Amino acid sequence: MKKGELAIVYGCTIATICTLYAAQPIQPLFESELALTKFQAAIFTTAIMLPLGIAPIVYGYLLETFSSKQMLRTAVLLLGVLEICFSLSQSYAMLLSLRGLQGLLIPAILTSVMSYISTRAPREKVQQAISTYIGITIVGGFLGRFLSGLLSDMVGWRPFFLFLGVALVVLFALLRRLESDTKPTFAKPNKRQIMAVLSRPEHLTIYLAMFAIFFVFQAILNFMLFGALVYVASIQLFHWRTYEAFFAVMFLFCLGMFVVHSIASGYINKLTHEYKGIANGLYISFYYAGGTLGTFLPGVVYEYGGWHWFLGFLTLAVLVGASLLFVLHQRMKKGYNAASFEPKEH
Predict the structure, then answer these.
(1) pTM (two decimals)
(2) For residues 114 and 284, is the Cβ–Cβ distance under 8 A?
(3) Quick one: which of 51, 158, 171, 155 has its CA closest to 100?
(4) Fold of the domain built from segment(s) 1-186
(5) Does residue 55 carry a pLDDT above 50?
């Protein structure tokens, strides 16, 4: 990919991830302005993430018909229009409906970009290319949360969402400059092919580990092997309940998330020779399914057990994910060959 094309694709990724997380840090503002309960405000995050646990697999059918450029442009335009509508809407029902519709479009963008980058990069540089992409998503997540909170304090919450919508429409126009318009390498995800990918021990282990780890990440943000260990250690520091401690520990917490996420997603693409679209779609599905549950299920533990039980529950979830990664590491040390697990046509 040329640098100009890469900048446009990364710009789409940042704007999309900003859209996904912008409502998260201003949930108390929605509570006061729209007279909502804490649960109703938290549903803004759940509503947009819920489709991300299912939709990446379903999009394989559409991506058999349309090129990656067509799919990306269409999804970016529609997401921009919906974000503009969100910034102008007044009722809770309309705002929630728009978030749900956005959740149907975001996986089309992320899955297309992730597979596009992995197929364009040389095989020996796939993991590095995907790690860079993951770094961009982390930047997008940070900017979405930080700018949303900052600008909401200064000018209210609506201008930032309006800005995101306009930015996505501009990016839609810039996507015309992408030279490659070939059909993506997505395979239509029939049940046999999906099970072929899931039957690979490495794939399923990584999927389940990321489910557990993103489950915890979303839980902490909604209520406030190296990477997994950093994750476990940083969670324990949240027992020190002061604002300054929370702010400092969050950097360590996000470092653990970045390390695990970037290595795992890159490793999936390095292992997979066939059905890259399905493999990436399943990765995103497991990842966001964990995140969706993490937006509300730990809240039940918090409600009945308090903060320390909440953190203990999350520590257990991370240890499960870390154990799965340890099993994968041991399996690979014994000499498993990636090629021997390639799903074949029968």
Answers:
(1) 0.66
(2) yes
(3) 51
(4) Growth Hormone; Chain: A; (1.20.1250)
(5) yes
